[in-house]
Design goal:
The complex is a heterodimer. Chain A is built from 16 helices and no strands. Chain A is mainly α. Chain A has a domain of 249 residues: Orthogonal Bundle (ABC transporter involved in vitamin B12 uptake, BtuC). The longest helix of chain A has 29 residues. Chain A is globular and about 85 Å long. The two termini of chain A are 27 Å apart. A two-stranded antiparallel sheet of chain B has the order 1-4. Classes of the chains: A mainly alpha, B mainly alpha.
């Protein structure tokens, strides 16, 4: 039992569950303050999400919607954790996601490209935005958090200007892909059949899973991944060992940005969402990616589960009683969860000290037993 | 032209207040990336005070109360940063980001709850303060003088005197440069860092209410404060963590931010036919360029961002 508890993965799992419970608890208390009569029910609505429907067919279809939005969140989460391994906090993932939306939609609606070139274009655009942050950091020593935030705003206004050219005449939204250029929609490949013909379930799902595994392999089984992690632990030591730390830094941000850009294409090219050209802030996807990356214990496999969880309660927010609460309560809970994720190292530290003390006690007891 | 000066000054006041907050906190050794969230909470406190105070009170009372409540809200919110980053040695970047998201989400939830409680059909996250806003401004020949400009100047003087002329300020700065050395001569590093964080909370909260009162008379809490917390950090870096330099940089940044508000009023700028988005981008582009130029030889406090561990003495 104690051996299991010492395992790093198990500790990460326990810490994450603890963060979720604490986050939910704080959310519940906040709901109690707003209106005590419906707080319990509202939390249940969040957790139930699509189970709020009684009809199983409807349930499975809504489950598909949640899955469709989990895919980009997973990509953003990978983006954050990948750069975090090098010791960089890529808060610019939100902007890199946004430029991915811009690239894929513009290529699809203006140039009528097929789905694959559109997706590649989004990846390149995201990677380029990531490279900017990386170059600013490597060559000019600019704090990546601040440059990332600045780029987020620049990219937001840029996206609004560019996509304004392909928007519908009567609304602030970009046109429907299915009407203007169905070629740009990701193929369903028969996967929609599993979700009661939910048209938004596309090859995005298998692509996301393959990419996740690829990232896991890169981080754990390749020379590049080893170098990146070494740079993250101690960049000076890495440099001393002959690793090109500046090149690694830029490379990791390019990959990180590309992941965010890919995430955008995997959502917007299903036709699930359209861009609103009067948007006043970048999509929250990149910021939620931070929550999921840390909640998943900074492991790509953990990110799959944490992304689904965060998206699940985010969608569940739509079902709370609107006469008392608003759907942002789920944003509130996920930000509380990130706050508690900051304590993960402390939680692990406590677990390890308690275990070490127990071990010591046991070995002392054994010694005494031996003497008698 | 007066309009341009007016907006430059008011935005510069916001940036100055918040950047001074960041400056004090970083001198004590804690990077406060949560300033954006602190601003939102300060703004929330101030806006709620304006909404629930009777508008019959004298302007003076209103101005002082709103400022004090905003400061208190900022201080209270910054304790979340202090507990996590000073006492529990949490990662300052994660906690700062969490506070930013929590600030916007929390404010939205609260304001929406208040709005729906009063009128079930009102699901907006807006607070309106038309008459109250007029109490903060004095119209002098077309120029809207704002009490926050005074507050910013006072804050500048206070922070300058505090950091360089008092023993607490010098001790605080020592904790950001070399906390182990500071501790060895009997300065409590934790106390000094707490002081730095709480002061940044106060200044951030004041900056937040100043920001939402700057140009408009209603605020939608869903949108947060548009990256102003981070712009302020850019101001602080370019100002090399020195209050007087920060003030000059704040004026420069304030000017670019003001341009996007008033460029329509200048014929030659308007005739260029540049989309509004370009003007909106300007402050952020300028800050990126400025950061690239000034970050190479950084004058940052040496120990900033590193949790203090007594065992490393």
């Amino acid at each position: 039992m104690r051996k299991i508890l010492k395992n790093d993965g198990v500790q990460a799992f326990i810490a994450s569950i603890l963060c979720i419970i604490l986050g939910m608890l704080v959310g519940y208390i906040a709901l109690l303050f707003i209106n005590p009569s419906g707080a319990g029910e509202a939390i249940m609505d969040l957790i139930k999400n699509f189970f709020n429907f009684n009809n199983p067919a409807k349930q499975i279809q809504r489950f598909g919607n949640t899955i469709a939005k989990t895919v980009p969140l997973l990509m953003c989460s990978l983006s954050i954790l990948f750069s975090y391994k090098v010791g960089l906090f890529n808060i610019g993932a939100a902007g890199q996601y946004c430029i991915g939306v811009c690239a894929s939609l513009y290529a699809a609606l203006q140039w009528h490209w097929g789905w694959f070139p559109c997706m590649l274009f989004a990846i390149i655009a995201g990677g380029f935005a990531g490279a900017l942050v990386g170059i600013l950091k490597a060559a000019f020593n600019v704090n990546e958090v601040i440059s990332g935030i600045m780029l987020n705003w620049i990219i937001l206004y840029f996206t609004n200007i560019v996509l304004n050219k392909v928007k519908e005449v009567a609304s602030p939204y970009t046109g429907y892909l299915s009407e203007i250029n169905p070629k740009a929609l990701l193929p369903n490949a028969g996967l929609d059949k599993f979700f009661n013909n939910n048209q938004y379930i596309t090859i995005a799902l298998p692509i996301a899973l393959v990419v996740t595994i690829a990232i896991w392999v890169i981080l754990n089984k390749t020379k590049l991944g080893y170098e990146l992690k070494a740079t993250g632990f101690n960049s000076k030591a890495a440099k001393y060992c002959g690793m090109a730390e500046k090149r690694n830094l830029i490379l990791s941000l390019i990959i990180s940005g590309a992941l965010a850009g890919l995430g955008a294409s995997l959502l917007y090219q299903t036709g699930y969402m359209r861009w609103e050209c009067t948007a006043a802030s970048v999509p929250g996807m990149g910021f939620n990616g931070i929550a999921t990356a840390f909640l998943g214990g900074l492991s790509p496999i953990g990110a799959i589960f944490s992304s689904y969880f965060i998206q699940h309660i985010a969608d569940g927010g739509a079902y709370v009683d609107k006469s008392m609460y608003c759907s942002q309560i789920s944003d509130f809970i996920s930000s509380v969860i990130i706050y508690f994720c900051g304590f993960v190292f402390f939680i692990k530290y406590v677990m390890n000290t308690v275990l070490a003390k127990r071990d010591k006690k046991d070995s002392n007891a054994n010694k005494e037993g031996g003497e008698n | 032209m007066t309009l341009l000066i007016q907006y430059t000054l008011i935005f510069a006041s916001v940036l100055l207040l918040v950047a001074l907050g960041g400056c004090v906190s970083e001198h004590s050794g804690v990077i406060n990336l949560g300033l954006e969230g602190i601003m939102v909470i300060g703004a929330l406190g101030g806006a709620l005070t304006m909404r629930f105070m009777p508008i019959t009170v004298p302007a003076f009372v209103m101005v002082i109360t709103v400022m004090i409540v905003a400061i208190l809200c900022g201080v209270l919110y910054s304790t979340l940063l202090g507990v996590a980053c000073i006492n529990f040695k949490a990662d300052q970047t994660i906690i700062g980001t969490a506070l930013n998201m929590l600030g916007v989400a929390g404010a939205t939830v609260l304001v929406k709850a208040i709005n729906t409680a009063q009128d079930p059909n009102n699901v907006s996250s807006e607070i309106e303060y038309v008459t109250q806003r007029n109490m903060f401004v004095k119209n002098i020949g077309g120029f809207e003088f704002n009490w926050f400009m005074v507050a910013a100047v006072i804050a500048l003087i206070l922070v300058h005197v505090f950091l360089y002329k008092t023993k607490y300020g010098l001790r605080l700065m020592a904790c950001g440069e070399h906390p182990q050395a500071a501790d060895s001569v009997g300065i409590s590093v934790y106390k000094m860092r707490w002081l730095g964080v709480l002061m940044s909370g106060a200044l951030g909260g004041l900056g937040g209410i100043c920001y939402i009162l700057a140009g408009v008379s209603l605020w939608k809490f869903e949108v947060g404060v548009a990256g102003f917390g981070f712009l302020s950090l850019a101001v602080m870096i370019f100002g090399q963590w020195k209050p007087r330099r920060i003030a000059l940089v704040a004026l420069l940044f304030g000017f670019f931010r003001a341009l996007s508000n008033v460029y329509v009023g200048f014929d030659f700028l308007y005739n260029l036919n540049i989309p509004a988005g370009i003007y909106n981008m300007m402050p952020y582009i300028v800050s990126l360029v400025v950061l690239a130029l000034s970050s190479k030889h950084s004058h940052a406090p040496k120990a900033e961002g590193i949790p203090y561990d007594k065992g490393q003495r």
